[in-house]
Amino acid sequence: MSTDARDGYPIALAVDEGSQEIRTPLGAATVGTRARQGGISPSSRTDAVGRERRCRWCRHPLSRYNSEPYCSACSRHVPTAPSSPPRVAPEVWKREDVREALYARDFGRVCHLVRIGSSLRQSDMAELTGLSQAFLSMLESGVRRLTNIDKIVELLDGLEVPVELTGPMLRLQRPLDGCGKVSGNL
After folding, report:
1. Which of 87, 108, 140, 161 is least buried, going by the fewest C-beta atoms within 10 A?
2. Does some domain include residue 165?
3. Virtual CA dihedral for 6, 10, 11, 13, nearest 10 degrees?
């Protein structure tokens, strides 16, 4: 037993067989620690070159117990797999309630039925149509109405409503290519 020079408290030092000695920051006392058998070694904090491993997103040092390339905070926000772009299910357009809402020009109900029928979020619908998520929310709840013909055409084209349900007048006019055919790009 010895005493700590700063506080005068006794310190017990123990060193067993197979343990390593680690010096304390003051350098006065040594403490024994058993060498790890199996598990993650302290050296796993470094990569193959010997550099300290850091989170790919925020660049903070990674824990030696973390085998992932991201820290725990950043891993919550990193997508697990590349997601496919949102798509409207083609069978939605065969439903009678969707057809009735299109005929009545109730675009809020159309958006709601298409979104629910295709298992999409409002943010997915916003990505498809080019309208804001807030506007789509107000449209679905009936607070706002869609009366601008350009926005109606943009909505119907973004949802890829079949021409037989909308008519050719409510579709975006695509430019003609050199052969006189409608090109696929806008």
Report:
1. 87
2. yes
3. 140
Q: Which residue has the tokens 């990569």?
A: 47
Same structural domain, 12 and 60: no
Q: How far is CA 90 from CA 40, 74, 77, 94, 152, in A?
A: 50, 36, 31, 8, 20
**Looking at the structure, do residues 130 and 58 belong to the same domain, yes or no?**
no
Inside any domain, residue 184: no
**Which residues does 98 contact at the CB level (< 8 Å), separation at least 6?**
92, 110, 113, 114, 117
**Block mean pLDDT (10 aa), the chain, length 186:** 49 44 43 41 58 86 88 80 82 94 93 94 92 94 92 91 80 55 49
Query: For residue 99, is it within any domain?
Result: yes
Residue 84 has what pLDDT? 79
Where in the sequence is the domain holding 31, given as residue range(s)?
1-35
- Res 172: pLDDT: 64
Question: Tokens 């300290």, residue?
Answer: 52
Residue the block writes with tokens 């010096």: 23
